[in-house]
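Teaching assistant's notes for section 4

Start the section by putting this record on the projector. Ask students to predict, before seeing the second block, whether PaaI family thioesterase will look compact or extended. Collect guesses on the board.
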Amino acid sequence: MQIIMDAEALNAFLARDFPQVAGSYRVEQVEAQRLTARLSVDDAHLRPGGTVSGPSMFALADLAIYCAILARLGPVALAVTTNASIDFMRKPEAGRALIAECRLLKLGRVLAVGEALIFSEGSELPVARSSMTYSIPPKA
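Reveal the predicted structure now:
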């Protein structure tokens, strides 16, 4: 698959169109079959007990898969999530960034399906697994 937007272009898009997440979430790497994104965890992402909240992990998976789609299609801001599933498998390690490694399983004209594994930085075992489907708007 051809890459249309690299990590720099995706991060610029996020800063421009989604400034509410651009400070904490960042695309690290874009490859033909894989995208890596990072959540720089701070107090805003923690829940009582000092672990990263589920909504923060969900947002990382959503951002990573969304950006994997944009990397192939270009800046289609109106691509929207139509289905999402996340499995929380273990507690993220305290004080560490979270890394999402995702890949697209299908990129069609109307739908895209992707999956993401989320890891505490430096750990080999995933803390969560997500699968999502997006609706791609028709080209104007």
